[in-house]
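FIELD: query
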Amino acid sequence: MYVTVENVSKTYPHHGATFHALNDISLEFERGEFICLLGPSGCGKSTLLNLLAGFERPTLGRVTIDGVVVEAPSPKYVTIFQNYNLLPWRTVQKNVELGLESGNLSKKERQERATRYLDLVGLKAFAKNHPQQLSGGMRQRVAFAGALAVEPEIIFMDEPFGALDALTRMEMQDEFLKLQKQQGTTIVFVTHDIEEAVFLADKVVVMTPNPGKIKRVISVNIGEVRDRTSPDFLAIRDRIFGEFELKQKDRTEYFI
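FIELD: result
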C-alpha cells in the first residue's frame, strides 16, 4: 500500500488529564486514490490529516508513505486549508509560482509552469490580478493551481470549500474532481459534509468521536462521472447516514 496508518493513537495533555484525540486508527490506501475523512466536529479527522502530512507525530503507532515513516512535512506533499494561504501583495501568477521558488527551476520555467496550471483551472486571464480582486471560488482555484504546480505526490486538504456558498461549493467540487482525475494525484480530504464526501471520494473513511476512531471505510463505486441525484449516489449517501445511526431530522444538526 502507498499510505499506511498502523494502530495510531494521539493524546494531548488537557487540564491535568489526558485527551484522547485518536484511538487505535488503522488505514491504508493506494497511490492516486481520493480519500475523504468524514465525521462530525471532534472526531479527530483534522488530527489524522496532520499526522499524515507530518505536522504532528503519533503518540502510539506509525504512519508510512511509500514505505517511509512520516516524521515531518515533506516538499513532496502539499496541504491546502480553508483560508487559501494566498499572499495579498503578490499577483495571482506570483502566488502560483511561490511554491516553485525554492526549487531548481529557472524564472522562465516557473512562469511557464504557473501559466500552464492557471490555464488548467481557468484563470490564465487573471494572472496579473491580486487575490483581493477575485471571488472566493476563484481564490480557491488559485490555491489549487499553486498546489498542482509543484506537482506533489499527495495533496492534503482540510475543509477547503467550507467558506464557500452552496452553489460555488458544488462548482468547485465538480472542477476539482476533474482536475484530480486528469492529474492522478493522491488526495486526502477532510470534510463533515456527507454529500461532498460521496461526490468526491474513491473511499470514504467514516469517523466517530470520543475518542476519534474509524467506524467504517466505504468504497464509492459509482464511476468517475458523479451525479448527485442518481440512485447509486443516494444509496451510498444513505448508507453513510446509517453508519452514524441518524434519523432524518437529526442529520443536519449532527454535522454542524
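FIELD: remark
The first strand starts at residue 3 and ends at 14.
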